lytic cellulose monooxygenase (C4-dehydrogenating)
Amino acid sequence: MKLSVSVLFLAATAQAHYRFSKLIIDGTPETKEWVSVRETKNYQDDHGVTDVSSVDLRCFQMKGSAGSATVAAGSSIGFVADQGVTHPGPVQFYMAKVPAGKDLATWDGAGNVWFKVAYLGHTMTAKGVDWPTYTPTILKDVSFKIPQNLPAGDYLVRVESIALHQAQQPGGAQFYLSCAQVKVTGDGTGTPGPLGAFPGAYKVSDPGLVLPVYPVPTSYTPPGPAVWTG
């Protein structure tokens, strides 16, 4: 069963917030929080980011760093939402390759370095927008497959859940996000793109960040660049 945007708006206001604190590789989640995922500022209360111009939109991280995970290109990778994805909206994944001479543990991910690798999105029905990531059973894990042609190297992997239950006007979208540190192996030779920056990739008035309840939406365009599939 899937729910329409109007029903979701009413239901989501009473639901919990969440954080993405564990990495999943090929279906196996890490046993503890913040092992390969950089600790985020919402580690205690699970609040989201609402300012698209804030540097928090990049990785929302506290001081300090995490370890790293090694994963082969073509493998499945994802994140655990501690409370489940309890707000309606899309989930998107980005990656950024650590530049030569920089350290995975300390690189801040600044600049036009991020490319989108996956979108867990929407379907349109007569009742509006349905979100497969938001179901009555509450989705706890969100994953994607690393493109087979991704070049080997050190990467930040960024997950974002865009909560649209209060996004009837610009500025109402909430972002639940974090970044993991991974070392990708393989022999890929692709050129990921297009590239964007956080902050910078989104504007507060982007259509994908504003979703009216009425009139019923007849389309939805996610914010950010197209997905690079390799």
Notes: The radius of gyration is 17 Å.
